[in-house]
Amino acid sequence: MYSGGNASSLPLVGGKAEPTIKQLSKPGRRASRFPKLDVPEVEISNSALTSIKPTLPEVSEHDLVMHYSRLAHRNFAVDLGFYPLGSCTMKYNPRFADFVASLPTFANSHPSTPSKFTQGNLSILFELEHYLTEITGMDCATFQPPAGASGELTGLLIIKKYLQENNLQHKNQIIVPDSAHGTNPASAKMAGFEVVEVSTDLRGMVNIEDLKDKVNENTAGLMLTNPNTGGLFEENIVQISKVIHDEGGLVYYDGANLNAIVGVCRPGDMGFDIVHSNLHKTFATPHGGGGPGSGPVAVKNFLREYLPGPIVIKKDDIYEWYEPASSIGRMHGYHGNFLVALRALVYMKLLGKEGLDELGSYAVLNARYLSSIVSKVIPLAYDEPCMHEFVASVKNLKKSHKIKAYDVGKALLDRGFHSPTIYFPLIVEEALMFEPTETQTVDTLDDLAATLEIIIQELQETESSFEEYPKNLPVGRPNELIPAKHLTVNWGDFELLEITE
Question: What pTM value is reported for the model?
Answer without folding.
Answer: 0.87
